[in-house]
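Budget justification aside, the reviewers requested a transparent look at the raw inputs and outputs of the sequence design task funded under Objective 1. We therefore reproduce one unedited record. The lines immediately below are the structure tokens for a 770-residue chain.
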């Protein structure tokens, strides 16, 4: 009776196969240069989103292992640290890096490569692959004498030819014969490079290739360049060929015809080819290779779908359907589970029909369709964990599920190696000096792996820095999104890690590992999160000015790479001549305001500095003077360090005011003030009277500096503002009557008033001398 089956269920116990795959840490010998310099006033902060993926990642998705190769010397050290993973903790619960691993990393160079990370994999949908008893495209054909390449070509067009019949009514044997003839078994240049098997011109999904082709115009044969459709694969070309025949109404008379001789006659008669022997050639190819077997396969209904294959509540749930014409009610329906990679059988069971009205409606003429549904669960064991599972639905007369009549349907494999995670936090807490790490990791292969480790890995040095056994936490949010992954409900983790100089500057990765061994080795599954770099370098120069005879410098500087660098220097640098002028070791001061703004930068809370440096002539000679804040691990500054270069400034202010210029008889009274940064190191102050009419100096007089607190208040940032006053009386020759006289205030390093000096030229005055 059609679409009826007996409700019999038999479980056949399978032979279970297990396997392990090896994953090696990528390692190399090395050492990092922890010093850093930045361009002036430019901070280089390299950060990476912990969940960002890129195309340069190494493939780390095959994640089960039977032991990790860390090198002979390192394995013992890491195993020891793993057993006592949480023994090195601070009062706040933060753990420290493994000291031996840190030292090993310090002696390694940076490896110029992009650290790999895991791409989350999760899939619970399997689409069907139609197959007769599991055969491929050439299984039912006469392939005697064919080369391996010709067999592969037939395999490449098989699915498309079957699908084209179901979709457009184009007989598969016709499609295959035309593809063989017109593409030369896929070896023509158009076919081999662009998968165009039928020479169809135009565009396919916007893709084409322009090639020379011979055409006849007005009885003349000419070569022109024309666009031919370009495809991604042969199956696309076959599908498009079927659409081409449907879209052109002259070929409608051959659609849905089941006799190949009818359609080979019609396609030539409809004008597809002008060769009078085209029909004969097609028939010869169809008969030579038995291509009508594909016609029969297309006529037969044998299809299905996997609606769900996932882990739920510790059970493997499988649901779907299988409709076929190759069935009678004496047959048994078996579901067989294979390892999708090795094709080893993992499990088989006879299933009862789970009626599907939707399938019955779609395939009303199939011998079994509605009652071909199945929905069942089996215990989720290590036989399935971490594998690609391929479902096979089989109708057979045999009670043990072996092939005997009926049909098999092989579905695409579904990964039960689901392995996904999210690093929700990997940030530095400036107040505590800890890195707070939190996230989740759900993996099917975590079954029977009860030890959950968080491993800190230096991707730049390709070295493990420490591993820590953590307690998994409940994550209802994760299981709501990923209900099919084994441990999703208990996938959370968190860790506090004491910040260490080994973590600063390099690409640091968090690896979440589930292991069946207490030391984190043995069999395990890893998730490598994308690397993050701790290179924040923030600073601000709040005060940078001359105060009396001192250069006053104050501000703050916080840098991740200052960890382990306890010596804080302020350096005065001549950016013009590119040489250091002075440096001072400073005591860092508390800056809670900086911590509030930059809570994730190391040392923010103690980032302040303030220092007075004796002013020298080298600082005020007109060059660009730059302040550098430096954290160093060496008192003599020969170690490693991190700098912040502030914007340069030029100290060349030269200001003055002539407050009195009065002639009384032959006496000239002069008074005012002159403050100049470049007067540093120039103790001789001269007042010079210059005749601009004749271009000659009249006289000069060395004068003592006088106190000018008013100038010091108004021009506080100029070197000698407080001692800038002058007042003197000069005797002038009456012969200068009517001349333009100019006062020059000069600071010189020579007693004569020459040598190195800085002048201020006041505006000339026309004088009357009585």
């Amino acid at each position: 009776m059609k679409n009826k089956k007996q409700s019999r269920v038999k479980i056949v116990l399978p032979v279970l196969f297990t396997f392990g795959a090896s994953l090696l840490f990528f390692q190399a010998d090395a050492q990092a240069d922890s010093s850093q310099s930045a361009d002036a006033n430019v901070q280089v902060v390299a950060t990476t989103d912990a969940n960002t993926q890129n195309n340069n990642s190494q493939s780390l998705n095959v994640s089960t292992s039977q032991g990790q190769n860390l090198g002979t010397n390192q394995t013992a050290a890491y195993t020891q640290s793993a057993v006592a993973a949480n023994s090195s903790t601070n009062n706040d619960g933060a753990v420290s890096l493994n000291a031996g691993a840190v030292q090993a990393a310090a002696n390694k160079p940076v490896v110029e490569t992009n650290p790999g990370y895991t791409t989350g994999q999760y899939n619970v949908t399997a689409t069907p692959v139609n197959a007769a008893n599991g055969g491929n495209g050439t299984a039912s054909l006469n392939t005697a004498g064919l080369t391996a390449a010709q067999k592969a070509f037939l395999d490449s067009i098989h699915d498309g030819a079957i699908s084209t019949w179901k979709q457009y009514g184009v007989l598969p044997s016709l499609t295959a014969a035309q593809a063989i003839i017109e593409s030369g078994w896929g070896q023509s240049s158009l076919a081999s490079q662009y998968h165009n098997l039928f020479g169809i011109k135009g565009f396919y999904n916007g893709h084409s290739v322009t090639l020379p082709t011979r055409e006849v115009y007005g009885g003349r044969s000419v070569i022109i360049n024309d666009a031919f459709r370009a495809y991604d694969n042969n199956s696309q070309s076959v599908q498009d060929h079927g659409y081409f025949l449907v879209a052109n109404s002259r070929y409608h008379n051959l659609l849905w015809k089941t006799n190949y001789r009818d359609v080979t006659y019609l396609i030539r008669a409809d004008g597809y080819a002008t060769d009078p022997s085209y029909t004969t050639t097609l028939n010869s190819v169809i008969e030579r290779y038995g291509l009508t077997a594909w016609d029969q396969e297309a006529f037969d209904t044998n299809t299905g779908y996997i609606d769900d294959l996932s882990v739920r509540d510790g059970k493997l749930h499988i649901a779907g359907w299988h409709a076929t014409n190759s069935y009678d009610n004496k047959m048994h329906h078996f579901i067989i589970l294979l390892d999708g990679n090795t094709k080893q059988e993992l499990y088989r069971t006879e299933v009862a029909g789970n009626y599907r009205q939707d399938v019955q409606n779609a395939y009303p003429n199939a011998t079994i369709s509605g009652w071909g549904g199945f929905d069942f669960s089996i215990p989720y064991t290590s036989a399935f964990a971490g594998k690609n599972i391929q479902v096979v639905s089989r109708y057979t007369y045999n009670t043990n599920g072996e092939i005997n009549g009926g049909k098999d349907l092989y579905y695409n494999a579904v990964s039960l190696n689901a392995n996904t995670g999210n690093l929700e936090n990997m940030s530095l807490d400036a107040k505590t000096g800890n890195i707070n790490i939190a996230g989740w990791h759900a993996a099917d292969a975590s079954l029977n792996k009860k030890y959950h480790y968080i491993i800190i890995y230096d991707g730049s040095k390709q070295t493990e820095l420490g591993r820590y056994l953590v307690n998994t936490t409940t994550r209802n949010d994760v299981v709501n999104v990923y209900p099919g992954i084994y441990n999703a409900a208990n996938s959370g983790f968190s860790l506090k890690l004491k910040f260490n100089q080994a973590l600063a500057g390099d690409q640091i990765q968090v690896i979440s590992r589930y292991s069946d061994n207490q030391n984190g080795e043995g069999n395990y599954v890893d998730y490598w999160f994308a690397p993050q770099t701790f290179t924040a370098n923030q600073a601000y120069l709040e005060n940078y000015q001359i105060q009396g005879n001192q250069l006053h410098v104050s501000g703050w500087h916080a840098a991740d790479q200052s960890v382990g660098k306890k010596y804080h220097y302020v350096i005065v640098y001549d950016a013009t001549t590119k040489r250091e002028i002075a440096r001072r070791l400073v005591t860092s001061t508390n800056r809670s305001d900086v911590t509030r703004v930059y809570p994730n930068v190391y040392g923010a809370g103690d980032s302040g500095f303030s220092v007075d440096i004796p002013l020298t002539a080298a600082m005020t000679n007109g060059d660009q003077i730059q302040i550098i804040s430096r954290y160093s691990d060496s008192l003599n500054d020969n170690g490693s360090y991190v700098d912040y270069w502030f914007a340069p400034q030029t100290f060349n202010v030269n200001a003055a005011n002539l407050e009195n210029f009065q002639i009384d008889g032959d006496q000239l009274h002069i008074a005012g003030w002159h403050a100049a940064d470049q007067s540093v190191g120039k103790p001789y102050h001269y007042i010079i009277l210059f005749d601009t009419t004749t271009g000659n100096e009249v006289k000069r007089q060395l004068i003592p500096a006088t106190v000018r607190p008013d100038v010091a208040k108004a021009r506080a940032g100029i070197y000698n503002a407080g001692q800038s006053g002058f007042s003197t009386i000069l005797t002038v020759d009456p012969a200068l009557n009517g001349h333009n006289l100019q006062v020059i205030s000069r600071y010189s390093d020579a007693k004569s008033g020459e040598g190195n000096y800085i002048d201020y030229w006041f505006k000339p005055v026309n004088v009357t001398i009585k």
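The chain has five domains: 11-16+125-130+310-415, 64-120+421-533, 148-299, 537-650, 654-766. Residues 558 and 604 are 5 Å apart (CA to CA). Computational costs for records of this kind are itemized in the attached budget.
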